[in-house]
Amino acid sequence: MNYVFPPAPQASVAVHGSDDRLPVRRIFCVGRNYAAHAREMGKDPDRDPPFFFTKPADAVVESGEAVAYPPETENFHYEAELIAVIGTGGKNISEADSLSHVWGYAIGNDLTRRDLQLKAREQGRPWDFGKAFDRSAVIGPVFPISEIGHPEKGSITLTVNDDVKQAADLADLIWSVPEIISILSHSITLAPGDLIMTGTPAGVGQLQVGDVCIVSIDGLGSIETKITPRES
């Protein structure tokens, strides 16, 4: 088979302690999955069914890489997240069986053009331009479950220039990782290489040119991103 132009390179992320790479198929994100963050976004934190949005696989940025301040925004935000990485696909997965489909876990930073997201929300339109733009998914090395197990609690923090902006515990998730996987799989068939960003704690805020943003999760280390000037 001949392609009319070369296919895009396979997006991938690092694997902790290995030279292997983990191919990224899709990136799913859970909205407002910490009660305090739901409140700061002006929403009720009651346990309504979770909702999801996506980012393209090629939005991945690795820890240590710089991210240029993105176009068409003046309100560029950070969001610290735990990521569950699917290793075994399936659909209609039971909550009890969900964790058997996880290959590992990583730290993420769901970069957001907040002004575009909020404008879309107000107009009842999709969030894509606020969430799914170029280089909007900072993803750290994936820790296999053989190393890390399944984190159910532990601190998740984010600093900007060494100032703590977000601080919470993974136990504060409204919807747990097993619940998220099960619910998502009843709507979309999951496959190896799917990444699920599980939501961010309260304390989201702006990033400026020159800022250094660090996200840390107990047992998973830290990831770092520097914000550089907007590209012309």
Automatic annotation (TrEMBL):
GO molecular function: acetylpyruvate hydrolase activity; metal ion binding
SUPFAM superfamilies referenced in this protein's UniProt entry, alphabetically: FAH
Keyword tags: Hydrolase, Metal-binding, Pyruvate
Domain (Fumarylacetoacetase-like C-terminal): residue spans on this chain: 27-227
Keyword Lyase attached: no
InterPro entries: Fumarylacetoacetase-like_C, Fumarylacetoacetase_C_sf
Superkingdom assignment: Bacteria
Name of the protein in question: Fumarylpyruvate hydrolase
Organism ancestry: Bacteria, Pseudomonadati, Pseudomonadota, Alphaproteobacteria, Rhodobacterales
